[in-house]
Design a protein that fits this description.
globular, single chain, alpha+beta, about 30% helix
Length: about 80
Amino acid sequence: MAQIKAVILTGLVMGIEDRVIREIKKYEGIKDGFMVYGEYDGVFIVEVPSQERLNALISRIRRTEGVTRTITLVAI
């Protein structure tokens, strides 16, 4: 089965970025995560088996304390 690959850009609360990124990197489907400079604060590389799993992961990230916003870019 083909995997869905995506990049999730996140806005994070200032001062706790490292902690939030470390937490999210533990979530199933997250392959990597790191801080960036610019409009967004964190970037996560995702690989999941289905759209439903991607939706669930996005919802979990959005509910994570310290996450203020997300943008998801799905690879085609």
